[in-house]
Design a protein that fits this description.
376 residues, binds S-adenosylmethionine, N-utilizing Substance Protein B Homolog, Chain A
Length: 376
């Protein structure tokens, strides 16, 4: 059993070094808990691990060797679950015979020099330079606290669907588990009592679930473009009588209907979810942020078509990058004087002027941004 997870982990790292890793996620379970931990720790510290390994060879080796070295180095430098010799042996066994002596030599050397190498460790090396620079400009002296928190375990919350209250879940909780920020975003229109709700980007349905319970008198239309994700959404929503699921591209949806509340939980870089997806920091580039921003602007423009007098739009993303958040909403409000921003209904810790902002190191939730805009 362990072998299956060990090789999956190795494949993930190898794909990363080959430049074709898509987000992955080691779901929790008792058999693979250790491998999930290695996965998290490796991506959390990959920047520093790469620097340390870089001091031990003259030029970067092939992807499979780099993957084996990264996994071994992480266990040697950042974990004490496995004896060093076992971590070295495991990495050695993952590469073809002719590469084994190299992996063995580099990792043994690393283990010997661990003390000296670790003296250079700083949390900033665990993140890409572009990310550190951007956030240093925004947070100044609080940068290290922000980054350190991103490398800690994410919190889980459990929702009671009857009372619609949410509580922090310790360990393996029962019930409907979701992130506190994601839960809060779907409730930002407060007691506006909409009778028709359009959830433009709905799967896997976390916010559809909250909308359905928060507004039991409303009809909730949940749209999802991706067929597989739509099927998941549909089955998750099967019991909810006030939800209709629609498999469609919101940009091509042609309807005269106007909705009291339109939630646009737009596709984004997901850089706010680094705590749950530690690899995301290494996969995104400035180009991805700009591409997402262009699509978000287009989707928000489309959302307007579904509104009438007095309708509200909630625009949200699980990213805190300015291009995907304040820049989108700022420009939208300039181009649409018929809309004005409304104070979000939420816990004070999420309030940032007129916007909802969840900074993980302050909110104990995922990074999220949202704005509520009302049509006059
Ligand atoms: C951020 S996720 C939504 C998460 C969801 N609101 C929740 O709380 O569980 C974005 C979703 O939008 C879908 N999507 C992307 N582009 C779309 C489009 N043009 N029309 C409809 N859905 C789209 C994606 O497939 C993805 O499932």
């Amino acid at each position: 059993m362990a072998d299956r997870f060990r090789y999956r982990l190795f494949d993930i790292l190898r794909s990363y070094y080959q430049g074709n890793l898509k987000e992955d996620y080691f779901q929790d379970s008792s058999e693979k808990r250790l491998y999930r931990k290695i996965y998290f720790e490796t991506f959390r510290h990959l920047g520093f691990i790469e620097r340390a390994l870089g001091k031990l060879y003259s030029r970067p080796p092939e992807a499979d060797v780099r993957a084996a070295l990264a996994l071994g180095a992480c266990q040697i430098m950042f974990m004490d679950d496995i004896p060093e010799y076992a971590a070295v042996n495991e990495s050695v066994s993952m590469v073809p015979k002719q590469k084994r002596s190299f992996v063995n030599a580099v990792l043994r050397n690393l283990a010997r020099q661990k003390g000296t190498l670790m003296k250079d460790y700083s949390i900033r090396q665990d993140f890409p330079d572009w990310f550190v620079k951007k956030w240093e400009k925004r947070l100044g002296a609080e940068l290290d606290a922000f980054l350190a928190d991103l490398n800690t375990k994410p919190s889980f919350y459990s929702v009671d669907p009857t009372s619609m209250t949410i509580e922090k879940a310790e360990g393996e909780a029962d019930g409907h588990i979701m992130d506190l920020a994601s839960f809060s975003v779907a409730r930002l229109a407060g007691e506006s009592e909409p009778l028709s709700v359009l959830d433009c980007c709905a799967a896997p349905g976390g916010k559809t679930f909250v909308l359905s319970h928060t507004y039991p008198d409303a009809r909730v239309f949940a749209v999802e473009k991706n067929r597989k994700r739509y099927e998941q959404l549909k089955s998750a929503m099967a019991e909810y009588k006030n939800v209709d699921c629609i498999c469609a591209d919101i940009l091509e949806l042609d309807t005269e209907a106007e909705f009291d509340l339109v939630l646009l939980d737009a596709p984004c870089t997901a850089l706010g979810t680094i705590k749950r997806h530690p690899e995301v920091r290494w996969l995104r580039t400035q180009k991805d942020i700009d591409d997402c921003a262009r699509r978000q602007k287009e989707m928000l423009e489309k959302a307007v078509k579904f509104t009438g007098k007095g309708s509200r739009i909630i625009y949200s993303v699980c990213s805190l990058e300015q291009e995907e958040t304040t820049a989108i909403v700022g420009q939208f409000l300039k181009e649409h004087p018929e809309f004005s921003v409304e104070a979000p209904v939420c816990d004070e810790k999420f309030m940032d002027g007129s916007y909802f902002v969840s900074l993980p190191y302050k909110s104990d939730a995922d990074g999220f941004f949202a704005a509520v805009m009302k049509k006059k």
